[in-house]
Structures are given as structure tokens and as C-alpha cells.
Amino acid sequence: MNVQGISSAIPRLLLVGSLTRDFIFYPGEAPLLDVPGGRALYAASGAVIWEKQLALASQVGKGYPSHWCSLFQARGLQVDGIRILDQELESRAVYSYDEALRPGFPLVKACLRHGVPFPPQLLGYQPQKDASLTSCGFSPSLLPDSYHQAEGAYLCPMPLEYLAQWIAYLHTHGVKRLVATFPGLLDVSPEYAQRLSFLEGLEVLIIHEKDLQRLFWGLSHDLWEMASWIGRFVPKVVISLSSWRYLLYLAFSRERWEIPAYSLGRFPIGLEDAFGGGLLAGLIQTAEPQQAVLYGAVSLAFKSESLDPFYPWEVMPDLARSRLQYLNLLIVPA
């Protein structure tokens, strides 16, 4: 069933991805146990700095705390696109870091280090690659009708077959601006580079440089050349570098831009999707791809300042605009 929201307003932005129950163990911070998280929420945390008419689309199991949907509504998020199934779906996500801030620190050791008992909610937990394997695996035709009138949608990383389905459906049903982040799939092979036509309908594809190199392994070593190949299907390609800087390729004009990063905080969780949500908001507001990437960079920086998933809701608009103005001074053509 779909969660019944209290608003029938048409959302401006639609954010499609996972919703999770997060357990976060980070050095020097009190552990966060069973708190809202997930890619769709992180994308919303990036978009909300610039836009307030946001809607979530996700699929969760009966073990997901349904009262969190009321919490999302209290923050202004539309929740009619959240489907709660009458079966169990794994929605727990554990983020555990060692003293060197490397992820994957053993959970039992993390509990001992933080002086907390092992959370009973994590009994039987087995790490999974990504909750998007189940959270995005439903037909987009089940979305509320009002969602079809959104001005834009951000598609979080998800299996390629789901991504193709969502792109085709939203594009066909008139959602004007589609942004997606390419999934970081370890098993992707260069043969995929020859079969990217399913990306048609996207306005912007965000892809990490490592995934781009993996996709074009043996075919090219030049990031711009790879971007131009993807540009045959997607007019705007954003390459995320390991330093959190960005390269922007515009296929129609063949322009190349280098986009700086704003100074980051110390928390790495949810940054990829906060960037995507902020980029979409910037695209809707300005229709200028360079500005859209800057919006995303500012959103990412705010998300990096706190583990609290709702921290970006408290950001002062003037502060966000001042950071945007600062980055505008640093953007340069490549």
C-alpha cells in the first residue's frame, strides 16, 4: 500500500531511492541507532536547501517504522509515493568507521568502542550492497498521479534495469528534467559502454570517475573522451572526481567546465545523493548546468557538516547563497 499523505499539492521535485534505518558509528560522535536515512532522504536533504516542494518515492517492508512518514511530512516532504509492503524487506544500513575514518569497522568492536550494547534491532543483520535493490524495484506506474506533474526528478543509484524503467516512464509521462547518478557497480564491463541508449531521456548523468573508467576500460583513458561518448545519449554529463571536484561536459556545445568543491565537513554519509538533489534543484531554478553543479556542491558541503539527516533543513538561505556566490568566482572552463 502507499502511505496516505495529507497534501495533494503537486511536488516540484521527485526524489526516487531507498529509505533506510541507519545505525551510525563514527569516531568522536555519539552513535546514532535506528534513525531515518537512505538515498531518497539524503537527496531531499540536498534539494531542500533550495526547494521546499519535494516528494519521496520508495518501497519499504512492514518492518520500516511507518511513523517516520509523519516525521517526513512534518519536514514538508510528500510521502504518498512511499509504498509499504506487507512483507519484510531489509532496510537496515550500518555505517561503522575506525579511527582512521575507514568504513567497514566490525560492528561488535564499534559497540565496544562507543560503550553501547549491541543493538537488538541488528540481530541477524547481514550487510547488503545497496537497499536500492528492493526499494526501487516497483513499477513507476504506481506513483500518485500528481507526481507525474513534477518539474524534475532525481534517480538515486539503482540497478541498471530499474534505472532504464524509471527513465523511460518518467520521460514518457512528461517529467521535464531528469537527473540520475550512475550506480557504482563492480561488475559493470566495457560492453555496457556500447549499450547506453537506455539513458536517453535524462538531462544530466552524474558518474564517478572510477565508474567511468571501469565502464570504458580498454577503450579510453581520457575522461573528456568518455564523457563525449555518453553525450551521444545524455546532453549533460557530470564527472565526480575523488577530490569531490567536478567536471561538466555539455554535449551540444562541447563545452568543458571544471567545478570546484566547497570546503567539506568531516562526515561522509549521504554526500553523493545530497549533491544530486541539490543539482536538480539548481537545474530547475536556473536552467543553467554550470550553476546547477554549484548548487549541488553547496548542498554536499552542508550535508558533510552533520550526521543528523535533517540538519540541512536548518540551513539559512542567505548562508547557502553566499557559498554559491563564492564558488561562482572559482568555476573555470577546462
Could you explain the architecture of this structure?
The chain has 334 residues and is an alpha/beta fold. A hairpin with a 4-residue loop joins β11 (246-250) and β12. It has one domain: 3-Layer(aba) Sandwich (UDP-N-acetylmuramoyl-L-alanine:D-glutamate ligase). The radius of gyration is 19 Å and the shape is globular. The strands form two sheets. It has a ten-stranded mixed sheet, with helices on both faces. Strands 3-2-6 form a three-stranded mixed sheet. The chain has helices at residues 39-47, 67-74, 107-114, 132-135, 160-172, 209-215, 223-230, 271-286, 289-303, 317-328; strands at residues 13-16, 20-25, 32-37, 54-60, 77-84, 92-96, 152-155, 177-181, 204-208, 236-240, 246-250, 255-259, 332-333.
What are the salient characteristics of this protein?
single chain, 334 residues, UDP-N-acetylmuramoyl-L-alanine:D-glutamate ligase, three-stranded mixed β-sheet, 20% strand
Mean pLDDT value: 92
Strand order of the largest sheet: 5-4-1-7-8-9-10-11-12-13
CATH architecture annotation name: 3-Layer(aba) Sandwich
Number of discrete helical segments? 10
Q: What is the CATH superfamily?
A: Ribokinase
The profile of the biggest β sheet is: 10 strands, mixed
| SSE series | EEEHEHEEHHEHEEHHEEEHHHE
Uncertain spans: none
Q: What shape does the CA trace take?
A: globular
Q: Tell me the CATH topology.
A: UDP-N-acetylmuramoyl-L-alanine:D-glutamate ligase
Broad structural category:
alpha/beta
Number of strands: 13
